[in-house]
Design brief:
This protein is 50% helix and 15% strand. By secondary structure, the protein is an alpha+beta fold. The chain has two domains: 54 residues, Single alpha-helices involved in coiled-coils or other helix-helix interfaces, CATH 1.20.5.420; 56 residues, no CATH class. The protein has a three-stranded antiparallel beta sheet, with no helix packed on it. The longest helix has 26 residues. The protein is globular, with a radius of gyration of 15 Å. The structure holds zinc ion.
Amino acid sequence: MRRKAKEREKDLARQRIARLLRLADEVYPEEPKLGLQYGELARRLALRTKVKIPRRWRWRYCKECGSFLYPGINADVRVRSRRFPHLVIRCRICGGIRRIPYLREKRARRVLHR
Ligand SMILES: [Zn+2]
């Protein structure tokens, strides 16, 4: 019984996190500060409820400072293929750099443009 309640709680948290992240992306181009805040809310909720951030948004958090990034606003994204194909994401807030390997160009495009 208790276990079920926990699962339900997590399900609700997952839904709220996805909603917050979608909202963050919607407002980001117009109101970057608000977008950042929504991203932060989602991150805190995820930490508190031990729910994982959905895969499609995971790379959007800076590994160094934890900010929720939006390419073109507070992050630079470059596609590189030296040695292995990967995306380079640079956080403009702290300057942190992160490399994400990918297998096909198609997938990279999907990650970037959704
Ligand atoms: Zn950062």
